[in-house]
Each structure stands twice: as structure tokens, then as C-alpha cells.
Amino acid sequence: MARKVILFITQTLDGYIANSDGKIDFLWNDKFSTGSVVDREYEKLSKRVNTVIMGRHTYNQIVNGMSPNDYPYAGYENYVMTTHPLPDEDNIHFVNGEVAKLVSDLKAKSSKGDIWIIGGSNVIAPLVNADLIDIYHIGIVPIILGKGIPLFSDRVVPKELSLESVKKVNEIVYVEYSR
Question: How many CB atoms lie within 10 A of CB 70?
Fold first, then answer.
């Protein structure tokens, strides 16, 4: 069975993944996740993937802000897309090149795990345009920002998807589409 490429990401109700300054802390508001239901969406994803792909900005947010002392994706093979690569560190590979080619090459390799696309329009847009994302798993939090960094940039070509599921977990709505 071929590896799946999964965009698993959270956005605001009006479609932003970060505010205008690139900050994402508003996405982790305890009142969204607190409630009678345990949110297991991330846990389910983490059991099926073994590879993570992100942009350099997302990587920097993680290692410099969100989790500076404990890299949360250490158990996965990591690829960080960047125009200024650093030397590889353990299972973190800094790649200067086309993300669509990297994903195509990774999909062609035999592996039991799927590929998780974390975020950033410089990573997402080329993959949408190359029709390489198999599953769009998007969490929607009940915030309207009015402006910020959109999940899908204006560089994305129109794409029709099929709705697979909709799930409410406390105050977050998860939608899953496939190509």
C-alpha cells in the first residue's frame, strides 16, 4: 500500500494558521480542548506517520518557542525545507529544493508510515498544486482573526476534494477531505 501524504493542521474559523506576526499561540487555548471528550486526533495521526515535513519558519517556531527543550517530533524522520540548510542533526534533514520532488521521492520509497505535512504555505501550496496531498485533516478553532497568515495562499490552484468526515471534539471541529 502506498504511503499517504497527510496535511494535519489547525486553523481559525476564518482560515488563518497564524496571526500577522506569525504567532500561533492562540491556537492552543485550553478552553477549546477542555471538555467532556478527550481529543485523540493527534494521537491517531502520530500512530500512522513516520515522516514529518515542514518549512524552516515552522521549525524555528517549534525549537525556539513552542518546545525549545524537547523537540516533539524526535521519533520521526524530519525534513525541514529551507533555502539556508544547516547540517543534518540525527533524524532532522535540512533540504534546499522542491518540496514536491522530496514528497514524490519519499512516497516512492517503501515504508509502513505515512507522511505528515505540518505547515507553512511555502510547503503546502506546491504540494496542493502538484496534487500530492492525499488527506486534508483540518482542525478549526472558534476564533476569527480577521487577518493573518492563511492556510492556503493565493498561489494555490483550485482543487476539488471529497468530504470524508466531520467531528466535533469539545470546541474544535475536525474536517477531513481526500483528493
Answer: 8
CA distance 31 to 24: 16
Residue 138 lies in a domain: yes
What phi and psi values does residue 48 have, to the nearest 5 degrees? -105, -10
Q: What's the number of domains the chain is made of?
A: 1
Say which CATH number the domain at 14 has.
3.40.430.10
**Strand order in 77-81's β-sheet?**
92-95, 77-81, 49-55, 114-117, 5-12, 135-141, 172-178, 162-169
- How far apart CA 120 and CA 151 sit, in angstroms, is 7
Query: Residue 41: what residue type?
Result: E
pLDDT tens, residue by residue, 132-157: 999 999 999 999 999 999 999 888 99
